[in-house]
Structure formats: structure tokens, C-alpha cells
Model the fold of this input.
Amino acid sequence: MKIIAISDTHIKSGSLIKQLPGGLVEMLRDADMVIHAGDFVTKFAYDELSRISRLVAVHGNTDEVALKALLPERSVIEVEGIKIGVVHEAALSLHDTTGARYLAKEMDINILVFGHIHRPVIERSDVLLVCPGSPTSPRLSEPCAVELVVENGRISGQVIKLEGPRCNSIERAEHFHT
Done:
């Protein structure tokens, strides 16, 4: 199963699909599942994304009231025996993911996908922490998403760099296998 994780799209008006970086829309359509870790901003953006792929989403801190009423703050799904949790705010610092790790343990999950910091993070300890960054408004990175592949109860993945404006770009290429 191929999962594309994104977050922090921050589309305030117009079409989400038209404002995503080149190539990402096709990746989303080709994925078996899309995880969005919050901050769509509008319900229209959420509705648009939910029409192109199987979507698991949570609300973020900038999402409009209608979207916060529709989406949970946390979500847990299971894929081939792997429990994946999704939240928007888990780590408030790029340098300290301790809070995110404890949240993952509290949620009793193997992988925590989170957003809010607009920069990709992949950190493995006793849980896997994944922040896909932002495809539309990155911070200290390039626009990106994360591809996760679950096969035979194992997960692998990578940060996918996307076309678009960079914010004080730091070159990173991260791959992992468990």
C-alpha cells in the first residue's frame, strides 16, 4: 500500500488542486491513501482533496470552524498491522521531538504523522515520527511530502522534494526502512 502524507497546505481561497506543486496531484491520485495532518484552512480544500483519493485527515489550528467541526483532532488507522496516528500539533520545535514521541506512546501507535512545523522530519526510535513538511508554504526547507510504502507488515518511505519556492532551503534526502 502506498500512502502519501502531506500537511499545512494553507489554501485560503481557490482550488487546492491547482495550487499544489507540479507532480504532487498525480502522486495523490496514484496513492492508495492520502494522509493530511491538518491546516487545509478551508472546507472547500478538504472536499476537493477527498474527491481524488482515500483521505485520512485531522484538523489543524488554522482550519475554519466548519472543518474543525467535521474533522477530529487525532485519528488512528491500521494498515497491515501497523498502527498509524495522525495529529496536527505534536512537536512544537524542529529540534526537540520528545513531545511527539510521548504522544505516539500515549496513542499506542507505531507511527505518528504530524504537521504544524512546515518542515520534513523523519525520526526513528521506539516509534517512527513523520512530519511531511508543507508542499505550499515550507519553512527552512523545500516544498515536500512523504511517501510511505507498507508491504508485508513493514514500512519504508522517503521525503519527496517538490517543485516550488523554497524557504532558506536545506538539502535533505531522507529514506528509511523498518
About this structure: Helices lie at 16-19, 24-30, 43-50, 65-70, 98-107.
